[in-house]
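Hey, I'm writing a tutorial for new members on how sequence and structure tokens pair up, and I'd like a real worked example in the thread rather than a made-up one. If someone can provide the structure for the chain below, I'll link this post from the tutorial.
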Amino acid sequence: MLASLIASLLALTGVAPLSQAAAIVLGTFILEDAATVLAAMQVEAGGLSAGLALSSLYLGVVLGDLGLYGLGRLSSMVPWVRRMLPAPNAAAVRAWLEARVFQVVLISRFLPGLRLPTYLTCGFLRASPGQFASAAVIATLCWTSLLFGISLKIGDLLIQHLGAWRWAGAAGFAAFIVVGGRLAAAKLKSGKT
């Protein structure tokens, strides 16, 4: 459902580059992996340039990551939220995180289900904004480029073999990525491998 919303946004933009970029950035706020898959499909179909797609994806994902950090930081200013993590515990976790913020952010980008809690926690504990931002940018460049490249290859196959049905295939692939990530996160959380 959300993937079709992102596809609709891209379709509504036509060929106006600024509108396409805005739709992709907005799409990353809705569901970033689906936005990446659908932008790659649009590139493969010839309706969007790869440079515009990737730069818009990078911008949207990094802005979303920084937004999560900011929300965590804002929540640390709310007294009843701050009381949920007692000061001695917060200090210990902050010290641990401060020594590893770059690695923690980088790893959380690649493990399903960890981004939201990790980025909010980094903000809440006031981890180094510079280290957080640089890790978020590097992780985004790696992950988004990888997913975009795979999606281009899959998009090529879908266009060759499904023709007019390629968008249904793209929605299915996007759903697979999203659901697969959710299932992997649930499996990691339950401790099963």
